[in-house]
Design brief:
This protein is mostly helical and 79 residues long. Helix content is 82%, strand content 0%.
Length: 79
């Protein structure tokens, strides 16, 4: 291979490494932000009630999907 081709390949790989490192940094930042947000929400007064409401909604969703399966028609969730 020509030296110029090798240098071009090296530069592309280095650029890809920089992009991947930036993505890793961004994912790490988003993870820390998510955890901080969750911990803040847990401290709010009605957190337990909200969780119970979400659990109930999930159970209702599952029951609806099971009924739709039994009837042979699955509704598309457009929410």
């Amino acid at each position: 291979m020509k030296e110029s081709t090798l240098l071009e390949m090296k530069n592309k790989i280095e650029a890809q490494n920089r992009v991947m490192q930036a993505l890793i940094n961004e994912i790490t930042h988003l993870r820390e932000l998510s955890i901080g947000t969750l911990e803040t929400i847990k401290l709010m007064p009605d957190y337990e009630d909200a969780i119970e409401t979400l659990k109930k909604q999930m159970e209702d969703n599952i029951k609806e999907k099971e009924k739709a399966k039994q009837n042979g028609a699955i509704k598309q969730d457009t929410k």
